[in-house]
Amino acid sequence: MSEPSRHIPVLGQEAVDLLAPRDGGVYVDATFGAGGYSQMILSTPGSRVIGIDRDRTAIAGGFDLVERSGGRLTLVEDRFSNLAEVCAAQGAETVDGVVMDVGVSSMQLDQGERGFSFRLSGPLDMRMGQSGPSAADVIAVASEAELANIIYIFGEERHSRAVARAIVAARTNAPITTTKALADIVSKVVHAKPGEIHPATRTFQGLRIFVNAELDELHLALSAAERVLKPGGRLVVVSFHSLEDRIVKNFFNARGKTGGGSRHRPELDQEAPSFAILTKRPITAGSAELAGNPRARSAKLRAGERTAAPAHAGGDLPAWPTLDTVMGRR
Ligand SMILES: C[S@@+](CC[C@H](N)C(=O)[O-])C[C@H]1O[C@@H](n2cnc3c(N)ncnc32)[C@H](O)[C@@H]1O
């Protein structure tokens, strides 16, 4: 990692302690970012890390750490929903641990040209990777109802209909292509009281999650991790808001449940638990970490240890708006 100071790994110590790396173990850091977690895992001699990030700049920033790792760190630019395929391509059909620190990185947020921040001027991009439609593309073509849904479901914005109406009215005059233009449009219809978050916070979050299919990615990656982990291998997930945490919590609840069926009610038979839950309640940042890093405020960590039971069936994705339905048909 070239500039460790650019990013303070949130709940890093707790995450790596739960991952419990050991000499000879293979670990997936599914969200490499600035490499904070990877660096901590690699401090266990003889451990190997496969680092994944969909952001090319994060992968490029990690080359230094690859060199320093003496062949123990491999970096792959990909989406973490592909983590089973990534591991197989690296010769690791099974692994000893998977850690995920999901969401946007400080580096992405702090670079105005990436378009994630309503506080910095830049193009309305918001893509973590370098391909696919940007937030400006979505804003240009989504219907008013689709925009309201995206902003309501992924941004949890109660005024989503008013925001969508304002966006559609504004785009008939001129394309909305900058963070500032969108923030100004939202600020005219959502009013924050003193001390409340910026009025555009939820709209930006909703669009970002949609543009990067973040919840689908998380849902798919959890199942992929379940398939590649060895018995005794650990899955550690740090999430940043309630939508993500709900997916992680439901995943571990479903995988950690012990049988509900009986001889008399075989229809209630359940699949054997594929994880033993290691965190009855989510772990959150302590006061010392919060003082140094306010972004850790909403972080929640959940972890489980893989049992020897087969992986459960993946389950359907919830029926929320997707890039394919909104962009694909045009
Ligand atoms: C919060 S940062 C991780 C920081 C890292 N733990 C560290 O210590 O530096 C999240 C990273 O995950 C990446 N990311 C988010 N969603 C992804 C996905 N679906 N596939 C691959 N990478 C993803 C982002 O590009 C970002 O770099």
From TrEMBL:
Membrane-spanning ranges: none
Subcellular location: Cytoplasm
Molecular function (Gene Ontology), one example: rRNA (cytosine-N4-)-methyltransferase activity
Gene3D superfamilies noted in UniProt: Putative methyltransferase TM0872, insert domain (1.10.150.170), Vaccinia Virus protein VP39 (3.40.50.150)
A Gene Ontology biological process term: rRNA base methylation
Keywords: Cytoplasm, Methyltransferase, rRNA processing, S-adenosyl-L-methionine, Transferase
Protein name per UniProt: Ribosomal RNA small subunit methyltransferase H
